[in-house]
Amino acid sequence: MEKRIVILGSGESGTGAAVLAAVQNFEVFVSDKSAIAENYKNILKEYNVEYEENKHTEELILNAHEVIKSPGIPDTVPIIKKIKELGIPVISELEFAARYTDAVKICITGSNGKTTTTMLTYHMLQKAGLNVGLAGNVGKSLAFQVATENYDYYVIEISSFQLDNMYEFKSDLSVLMNITPDHLDRYDYKFQNYVDSKFRILQNTSNKDSFIYCSDDETIIKEISKRNINATQFEFTQNKKSVENGAFLDSESNINYMSNNKQQMTMQIDELAIKGKHNVYNSMAAGIVAQCLNIRKDIIRESLVDFRNVEHRLESVISVHGIKFINDSKATNVNSAWYALESVNSKIVWIAGGVDKGNDYSILTDLVRTKVKAIVCLGKDNSALIKAFGDIVPQIVETTSMLEAVKTSYYLGEDGDTVLLSPACASFDLFDNYEDRGSQFKMSVRSL
User: Fold this and answer.
1) Cα–chain-centroid distance for residue 343?
2) Which fold has domain 4-91?
3) Mean pLDDT in order along the chain per 10 residues (448 residues)
4) Rounded CA gap, 241 and 105, in Å?
5) Which fold has domain 315-446?
């Protein structure tokens, strides 16, 4: 009997999984609780995939042999509960895709910095002439590329939501940037559950595989001490004065890349294309991946110098009358906002707010006290921000649209200041997503 695959969600991930299932000659059905975007509908039609939108029809779903679900769908929704009660396996698109490729998988996760590190690693591999695809949370769906391309390497950004439904998947080079509280609403508000999810990146790995991690992250170090890790370990640090394998920052502000206690190459942090303490970590991680793949030192160096950062991540827009505008809309949690505030060397008018995921703003207090002259709140409910910073920031203004927020920031700023959009919150109260929020910011700045 033909195996029936049902896919829940028809975004990039779901549509890609549908294409791969169709190419592998499964009976495929896609179900989406919302409307399906026109471009994805066209792809489904091209591969003769049956679909429904704006509903989940149980009799068309509960007869599946296997369900592939979009990472955005929590396990608590009724249809998932029913699927699990019937004992039907629920997997992620990445789990499904990995069954059909022998390519080397470089998998990058963490609470912050994973997109930049993924893009930088991909840039290095491309520059080295490797046949490489970019997948996961950035680029095209891994399943779609496995179905339609023939890459030797994949650089994959993986979220905790994707890792949760991965079982047989194995990463060849695993990168763990950091772990800070995020998305706790999906993890019963237990940080350990989120930590365990991130460490799933190491499942099924052996001593032939590599694990690259930040040894300045206390949570990661604590977890490593509790676990039996088979993969060969490489660390990156800005606090230690040397490492045996990995990368460290010396007192002269040089990144030293090490292998078996021998220095392989050094790089002055002033030469890096992307600035800020967090980007030193990102550059270290990507450089170690490149070393593990025996990419030439001159290629690694060139890549670190000429890389262009991703859109909506500490993206300089323009200066207006001496006021610099920076778009960091991708900062959807407190830790990302910390990195953004830390990287700015002038007085800041900070645009923040949105959907608060139970944020603890206390880690920002010192930075906000010393750097932020005004906060422009952009969200439907700004009470948590006002409570956290009302006593330490002279001016806090509430706004309800991006244009209003940008105009207000401009009037509050003066020559030499920076207006920083780094919301520390999700975007869904006023915007479609963080990209929409960032694009509206850029448009509003250019209209000043």
Assistant:
1) 19
2) Rossmann fold (3.40.50)
3) 91 96 97 92 96 95 96 89 96 97 97 90 97 91 96 95 92 95 73 89 96 96 95 97 95 93 92 88 97 96 89 88 95 87 92 86 94 95 93 95 97 97 90 94 96
4) 31
5) Protein-Tyrosine Phosphatase; Chain A (3.90.190)
